[in-house]
Specification:
With 298 residues, this protein is α/β, with parallel strands linked by helices. It folds into 2 domains: 66 residues, Alpha-Beta Plaits, CATH 3.30.70; 226 residues, Rossmann fold (3-Layer(aba) Sandwich). The protein contains 9 helices and 12 strands. Strands 5, 6, 7, 8, 9, 10, 11 and 12 form an 8-stranded mixed β-sheet that branches. Strands 2-3-1-4 form a 4-stranded antiparallel β-sheet. Helix 5 links the parallel strand 6 and strand 7. Helix 3 packs across helix 4 and helix 7 packs parallel to helix 8. The N and C termini lie far apart (56 Å). The relative contact order is 0.13. The protein binds S-adenosylmethionine. S-adenosylmethionine binds next to helix 4 and strand 6. Belongs to the class I-like SAM-binding methyltransferase superfamily. RsmB/NOP family. Keywords: Methyltransferase, RNA-binding, S-adenosyl-L-methionine, Transferase. GO terms for molecular function: RNA binding; RNA methyltransferase activity.
């Protein structure tokens, strides 16, 4: 496929699960077999040579390291919840970002991991078990139906919203199929267009819902899609509502070059990764508002 161009090999990334092992120990162990570097941007992320096969490495099997791409690892890092916070992962299975949040929070505080799909709840629980995290509560249900005024969520300070998307930034087969649309700006066919519209409508609803939680200070909206309709357009459509709640866009990883498509004022705050150059096509938006800590901590 076009995205597996011979000769253009990409490094492998693994994220150290600092709930189980510290970065230095993981590096020492991996260095027995591989050249290992620390990623220059994402904390606890290690870079290994292209082609390194870690699937049955004992550190993977016992949950000390997770095979997670760089772009994917940037999402929870962009939210950067503090230890002790209460965080809601709105669409959480299979849970890679959920357990990354737990590691970022050093196991302190509370994570609510919501997931609608029953089969995927099982995978979420497996991931949580493997990670060793003990502060994650699984909510099997529809994020849209969690009442934001329910006192059980009044302490939620951060929301990670990584909703269902077309996957056009990661699935190489599907990406090839959609390439004409991605490259030309025109959809490949009416069915694809219809599907994208439905996804975007859900994504917008979910983001609007996330914005309505009264105690929330930070929201990350992310997709693994390359399509503007699921990314910049969704963010732009909620901006007036976000502003009415006191949120503004901030710039995750300011040193990162590739930003949002220049389709509205402020889209330079958004972050994109490229499916070819960066191996995965991700999109990240970070909404922030200040809430008086005296209200929050009382
Ligand atoms: N954040 C996850 C990770 O890093 O492992 C990946 C999340 S995946 C892109 C989106 C998930 O949202 C799917 O598992 C899907 O079943 C779930 N989902 C879709 N609609 C939902 C809803 N209304 N409420 C909760 N979860 C939902």
């Amino acid at each position: 496929s076009l995205y597996e161009t011979p000769g253009v090999s990409k490094p492998r990334y693994v994220r150290v699960n600092t709930l189980k092992v510290d970065v230095e120990s993981a590096v020492l162990e991996l260095e027995k077999q591989y050249m290992v570097q620390k990623d220059d941007l994402v904390p606890d992320l290690l870079v290994l040579p292209p082609g390194s096969d870690l699937h049955d490495h004992h550190l993977v099997m016992n949950g000390s390291i997770f095979m997670q791409g760089k772009a994917s690892s940037m999402v929870a890092a962009a939210l950067s919840p503090k230890p002790g916070w209460e965080v809601l992962d709105a669409c959480s299975a299979p849970g890679n970002k959920t357990v990354q949040l737990a590691a970022i929070m050093r196991g302190k505080g509370k994570i609510l991991a919501c997931e609608l799909n029953k089969e995927r709840v099982k995978r979420l629980k497996d991931t949580i078990r493997l990670s060793g995290a003990s502060n994650i509560q699984v909510l099997h249900g529809d994020f849209l139906k969690l009442s934001s005024v329910d006192p059980s969520y009044s302490k939620v300070r951060a929301i990670l919203l990584d909703p269902s998307c077309s996957g056009s930034g990661t699935a190489s087969v599907r990406l090839d199929h959609l390439l004409p649309s991605y490259a030309s700006g025109h959809s490949a066919n009416a069915a694809d267009e219809e599907r994208l519209k439905k996804l975007a409508a859900f994504q917008r609803k979910a983001l609007e819902h996330a914005l309505s939680f009264p105690g929330v200070q930070r929201i990350v909206y992310s997709t693994c899609s390359v399509h503007q309709i699921e990314n910049e357009d969704v963010v732009q459509s909620v901006l007036p509502l976000a502003a009415s709640y006191g949120f503004h866009l901030e710039t995750p990883f300011p040193q990162w070059q590739r930003r949002g498509l220049p389709v509205f004022d402020g889209s330079e705050n958004l972050l994109r990764t490229d499916p070819v150059e960066d191996k995965e096509g991700f999109f990240i938006a970070l909404f922030v508002r200040k809430i008086s800590d005296t209200i929050q901590d009382s």
